[in-house]
Amino acid sequence: MAITLPREWWPARSLSLRLLVVASGLTGVALIAFHLDQLNTAAGRPAFWIMTVLSLLAAVQAFVAVDPRGSTVVSCPTLCFTFAILLCWGVAPALLIEAIAVALVAARLRHTAAQTVLVIGQYAVAFGAAYAVLVLGDPHPFTTVAVSHRLLDALTVALAGGAFLAVYSAMVMLTARLRLGRTRWRRVGEPLKHQTLFKASLVLLSPVLAVSAHVNQFFVLLILVPIFAVQRMARLSAERDFASRVDPLTGLANRRTLQIRFADMVNAPVPADQAAASSVALLMLDLDRFKHVNDTLGHEVGDRLLIAVADRLARHEPPDGVVGRLGGDEFAILVPGLSRPEQAYQFASQVLATLNEPMHLDGLLVDITASIGVACYPEQGGDFATLMRHADVAMYEAKRRGDAAVGYEATADENGPQRLSLLSDFRRALEVRDRDEVALHYQPQVDLATQKVVGVEALLRWRHPTRGLVSTADLLHVAEHTTVMQLLTMRVIDEVVAQVARWRAAGLTLRASLNVSARDLYNTDVVAQLAGRLRDHRVPPEQIQLEITESALMGDVARAQTTIAHVSDLGVAVALDDFGTGYSSLQHLRKLPLTEIKIDRSFVGGMAGNSDDAAIVRSTVELARALGLRTVAEGVENEYTWRMLQEVGCTVAQGYFTARPMPGADLPGWLAGYSAARIRKPLTSA
Question: Which of 285, 485, 525, 626 lies deepest, with the highest CB count within 10 Å?
Answer without folding.
Answer: 285
